[in-house]
Amino acid sequence: MIEVTNLSKRYGRQLAVRDISFSVARGEIVGFLGPNGAGKTTTIRMLTGYLPPSGGSAKIADFDIFRQSIEARKRIGYMPENVPLYDDMRVREFLSFRARIKGLSNSDARRRVSHVIETCGLEGVRRKMIKTLSKGYRQRVGLADALVHQPELLILDEPTNGLDPIQIRQIRELIKHLALNHTVLISTHILSEVEMIANRVIIIDSGKIKAADTPQNLIADMRAAGRVQCEIQAPAEITTPVLANLPHVKKVSSEPLEDNWMRSTLWSDSGSDTRQTIASIASENGWPLRSLFRHEATLEDVFVEMTRKD
Ligand SMILES: Nc1ncnc2c1ncn2[C@@H]1O[C@H](COP(=O)(O)OP(=O)(O)OP(=O)(O)O)[C@@H](O)[C@H]1O
Questions:
Q1: pLDDT tens sequence across 254-268
Q2: How much is the pLDDT for 224?
Q3: Lower CB density within 10 Å: C or N end of the chain?
Q4: Rounded to 10 degrees, what is the CA torsion of 101, 103, 105, 107?
């Protein structure tokens, strides 16, 4: 559904998107993640035909977004970060206007507007002026606008940004519902949201793709490379160098607890679980060991690790 090949965007001297390639298959729900300024909006604006690339290409449903822009854009429902709405229009009037701009006939527009009003839960506000709507309802109108021409692909740029927790939950439920019969690319900062909705994530940082996989695989990799915490009753000057020298261990930090107990955290390489080695070392040295566990990784850990600046 989306095929991005060596796409780049330069703003003056700054390379905001650097030679990225990825694809999204029909029916996938892909979370597009990255810290502020990573290049998400720039990429999305290129994919939706609003911004010309400095290099590379992108196809939507096999149509080149730059050379076959009209065909490609017909298939995209785009909800930008700050949904531009006409405040002095009423909801239904605005959606009808948008449907006509998008080329729907009068009768198709009427039918589709009624459908998206129902899908997006806008029945109660369809006659209201847009300027009187809450942010949550404005987002729904933005989603209805993105859907009105019946696109196969939805591209949503931070759709829950600025909403309160209840509104976030409502929009998330709506997106989950829409995901049943659309391909979705969703950019967000809310990682729990991605874990709940997406079947794959793409992490971008400084204009480059750092990872593209299912949340489960990314978390599993992170778990393998994970953190192990242990509590040993021995001075840190003795235990820390020993723990730091264990195979695969990259870093150890220790903090003193009561009665000469010491809590140490070990970060290790991918594929290694140091728990057994720690237990053996403690036993060999006669160090009392009262706690030993592996930290369960989350998508947030993956995100922080992938986008860490060090
Ligand atoms: N119109 C522009 N002119 C110059 N630089 C820009 C422009 N738009 C974005 N940038 C820069 O390009 C980089 C990528 O920005 P972009 O908005 O794509 O990031 P983002 O991942 O969407 O960030 P955020 O999560 O904050 O929205 C940033 O360093 C930003 O300052």
A1: 999 999 999 999 988
A2: 60
A3: C
A4: -60
